[in-house]
């Protein structure tokens, strides 16, 4: 009898922060995955057939054909089905704190920082063939400071963003931050606690595959993939 | 010995679709709550002290002072702590489908329909003292059709949005839709399945307190609170 190994495919593109969060979670939990490129801005049928919302990431399991859509639904799914290395852990109040921070980075940080950077530095270059708007870049870098300040504050009070252990909040924040950092949108000076926390995150084996990837003609700054302070 | 009853306060405003979702969930689960008005656009210290992201809803329990932030974190919290009438139920795959639809209405529908309607019809009237932009209103009403089409399609195939039972997906969708409907952004003609589903939702006891509320000078269309077809 053949022994079938479930294999997950992640439909994503290298600078999708939500796909990065899912990849980090799967890496931490030791769930094997293969990457499939999906570019939401090209309106491919394949992506829309799996996800009517037309967004990345989507994960599909090859054996049974199970398709899971939406990065938070995917993370909750793996958390419920794979016990190893729980990332939404603790009491109900602690789990709420983890999910609060996930929402802050998935929604607010993406809206204020990584989303505008992706639009100005990736979409305008690859799709619209326009130059980035310097005013929008400055505004997103200014807002990024507030988030790094908030991480400084959290790390002054806790070992990890949501409390005593590393959780999905750290992975969600690091995923968004890694995209902003790739696109040159972060100034780490005067953010020692945030910088120290992020260096630890970058050093994790789950992070290595992300740091070595490049998005076509767009190059990250030299410090992007460095894991030594 | 005094017998203390835990009481939750919800910090919200009447047309906040995310607060409506939380109120519907608490209503369905039989969790008592009192309303506290919070207006994110006024930048009140009280809201920002509880939620650095400055958003509604926030819930606070009076006895222990527990504060839970972010509408999805709040719903997961009550789902984990109150067993009665589960709203994120079933297998892991079914739970993922519920969460996919919650994300679609919380994120996509809000971005395309209820968010622009709130900006044009509420914020411009109450805060900015401007007239709504007719082009944006037309575009959001056009996009609303696509979502009502999708609900028609789901209800053609399932009794409820996510499957065989009512879930948080129905509550999240009805919460967003009720705000769009209040603001006159929905044309229900040619959406019989969606209309039938929404009439059932409006008839639930959990929905009644929402339908009777009014947001200051802004009045809903006459059909808004009707529960008879």
From TrEMBL, chains A, B:
Q: Which residues form the GST C-terminal domain?
A: 91-224
Molecular function terms, GO-annotated? glutathione transferase activity
One Pfam family it belongs to: GST_N_2
Tell me which CDD domains the record gives.
GST_C_family, GST_N_family
- Report which superkingdom the organism of origin falls in: Bacteria
Q: Which UniProt keywords apply?
A: Transferase
Any one GO biological process: glutathione metabolic process
Which residues lie in coiled coils? Answer: none
Self-association state and partner proteins as the record states: Homodimer.
InterPro entries, per database record: Glutathione-S-Trfase_C-like, Glutathione-S-Trfase_C_sf, Glutathione_S-Trfase, Glutathione_S-Trfase_N, Thioredoxin-like_sf
Q: Report the residue ranges that make up the GST N-terminal domain in this protein.
A: 6-86
Q: What is this protein called?
A: Glutathione S-transferase
């Amino acid at each position: 009898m053949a022994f079938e190994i479930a294999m997950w495919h992640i439909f994503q593109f290298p600078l999708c922060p939500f796909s990065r969060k899912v990849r980090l979670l799967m890496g931490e939990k030791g769930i094997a995955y293969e990457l499939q490129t999906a570019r939401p801005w090209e309106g491919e049928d394949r992506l829309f057939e799996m996800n009517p919302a037309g967004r990345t990431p989507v994960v599909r399991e090859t054996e049974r054909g199970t398709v899971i859509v939406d990065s938070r639904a995917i993370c909750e799914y793996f958390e419920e089905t794979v016990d190893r290395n729980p990332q939404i852990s603790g009491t109900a109040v602690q789990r709420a704190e983890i999910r609060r921070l996930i929402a802050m980075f998935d929604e607010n940080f993406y809206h204020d920082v990584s989303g505008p950077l992706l639009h100005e530095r990736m979409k305008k270059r690859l799709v619209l063939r326009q130059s980035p708007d310097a005013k929008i870049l400055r505004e997103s870098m200014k807002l990024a400071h507030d988030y790094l300040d908030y991480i400084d504050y959290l790390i002054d009070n806790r070992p990890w963003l949501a409390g005593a252990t590393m959780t999905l909040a750290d992975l969600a924040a690091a995923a968004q931050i890694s995209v902003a950092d790739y696109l040159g949108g972060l100034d780490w000076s005067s953010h020692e606690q945030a910088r120290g926390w992020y260096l630890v995150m970058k050093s994790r084996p789950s992070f290595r595959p992300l740091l070595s990837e490049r998005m076509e003609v767009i190059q990250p700054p030299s410090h992007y993939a460095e894991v030594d302070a």
